[in-house]
Amino acid sequence: MAEKNTKTDFRSLLEILFISTRLGLTSFGGPVAHLGYFHEEYVRRRKWLDEKSYADLVALCQFLPGPASSQVGIGVGVIRGGIIGGILAFIGFTLPSVIALIIFALILQGLNAGEVGWIQGLKIVAVAVVAHAILGMAQKLAPDLQRKAIVLFALVVTLLLQTAFTQVGVILLSGIIGYLIYRNQTNMDDSRLSFPISRTFGLACLALFFGLLVLLPILRELTSSEWIAMFDSFYRSGSLVFGGGHVVLPLLEREFVPTGWLSDEAFLAGYGAAQAVPGPLFTFAAYIGAVINGWQGGLLATAAIFLPAFLLILGTLPFWDSLRRNPKVQGALMGVNAAVVGILISAFYHPIWTSSILAPIDFAFAAILFSMLVYWKLPPWVIVLTGAIGGTLLTFI
Fold first, then answer.
1. pLDDT tens string 267-299
2. CA dist 247 to 130, 244, 352, 390, Å?
3. Cα separation, 124 vs 129, whole angstroms
4. What is the pTM of this model?
5. Which of the four, 61, 64, 218, 220, has the lowest number of CB atoms within 10 Å?
6. What's the rounded Cα separation, in Å, for the pair 121 and 37?
């Protein structure tokens, strides 16, 4: 009987890896689209969890900092196959785009990014994609005047005070404002969700998350290791992202471009390329790591930026049922989400707009790409391919 159970468990783990890899190869369109793919595969086709459980899991991952779609995938893997199932679900969904972006970075190293036409085209793709993300997030996360005011506050402060601490302060202050404004809202959700993780293990994961957040900057100062410095920068960026993958852009830009680790052109070219591959946008870190330190740097960057997501989802799963019913917590989250929109608008202006729209023809091309994405609803890989070809043609005009 034990041998049969072992075989069943092994077969179940292989199934998790196979299904998540297939999703990692085919899930284009960003985190919202990923959640749709997950729902179709895990809820409707496989019936690994029911509608309410999936909705609860999505709510938790929207609450936490980090890549929401990746965390949902990890959570489904945990439900199906325990912690090992969560790890396999993550590997399958993430590895295809990691490999693609590392290869792109290694190819790009032999070129001068500032002098290649298709690189400029990818930078303009980034303009269209982030503009689309801003519009969608603003409609959903800032529908009333109070949250629009929080958006404006976050935009102005992060644009005028461009430091790593500014964004953290804005997020914390916006959470406090959201708590004060929305703390009395009612929540009628009575559904239940349970996971095969103990509260002790969850507390250990949360302790490790905060411990690394404090310890890594100290180690960075005490040593001169570039690898520790890279791990610290990627880990901190992955720890402070609220609102989805696009928000990691300003955090990573301010960690690596001003320090001279890579140029604005190389940064935005990689961001444009990240739109062409399936899977989570956080794998953009693999590209940056590979530009700095080859394929080893790409793998280190991937591990560092996703580690906070792992620790947070595993740490909070045992406590989520009671936490999500607290209207004060939800009120704070509403303020944080509005601040995310302002931070993204700030990043849209600098570095994306200032480094990409250099002439009227660039703006015209960005408008075409935006229309293809938003109104004609063409898939992202078509937008990226059009951007690369169009950027090459612009060099002859």
1. 888 887 787 777 888 888 999 999 888 899 999
2. 10, 6, 13, 26
3. 9
4. 0.71
5. 218
6. 29
